[in-house]
Amino acid sequence: MRIDEYEILFKKYYRQIFNYCRVKLRSEHSSFDCVQEVFWILYQKIDKVDVTENILIWLYRTADKVISRYIKKNSKDLSLDSLDEDIEDKREMFNESYEIIDTIVSKEELSLLENYYLEGVAIREIAEKASVSEAAIYKRIERIKAKITRYGKELL
Fold it and tell me: What's the pTM value of the predicted model, to 2 decimals?
C-alpha cells in the first residue's frame, strides 16, 4: 500500500475537498462526514488510483458521488429550496465557464474535451474514431488544457 502517497494527498487536498462539500451541502457537519468518506474511499483504492495531476478530478468526482448518496440518505434533513438554489447557481457558473471555454478552443477541441471528460469516452475509442493514435489524443488533450490554463492566467 502506498501510505506515503495517501498522506501527501490527504494533506494537500483535504481542505479543498472539504470546502467543495461545504459549498454543496451548506452544512459543516455534513461536509465533515462526506469528506471523511471521500478520503476513506481513496485510502481503500490507493493502490488502484492513478496518482497523477488528475487525482483532484478523481477526488471531486468521488465527492460528488458521496454527496449524492448523502443527500438521498438524509433528504429529510436538507432543505429542498437550498438545493434548488444551489443547482441554479451551479448551472449558471457552468454556462459562464462553458461560454469562456467555447471562445478559447475550437469546436473540435471542445468536442474532444466533452467526449473525454463529460461523457467518459475512452481514449482508445476517441483515437479509433479520429483514426489517430492514443498518444496523439493524449497530446491533444494536454495542449487544450494548456491553452485553457494560459488563458486563465492571462485573466488573473
Answer: 0.49
Co-location of 134 and 120 in the same domain: yes
Same-domain check for residues 89 and 153: yes
The domain containing residue 50 runs over which residues? 1-78
pLDDT digits (tens, 9 = 90+) for 43-87: 888 888 877 768 888 999 999 999 999 988 887 655 554 555 555
| pLDDT tier, 136 (very low <50, low <70, confident <90, very high otherwise) | very high
Q: Which residue has cell 438524509?
A: 74
φ/ψ of residue 59, rounded to 5:
-65, -40
The answer to whether residues 20 and 59 belong to one domain is yes
User: Residues 10, 39: contact at Cβ < 8 Å?
Assistant: yes
| Host H or E run for residue 101 | helix 80-104
Q: Give yes or no: residues 99 and 151 share one domain.
A: yes
Q: Tell me, what DSSP letter sits at residue 118?
A: I
Domain boundary among 78, 94, 123: 78
Of 68, 65, 73, 96, whose CA–CA distance to 83 is shortest? 68
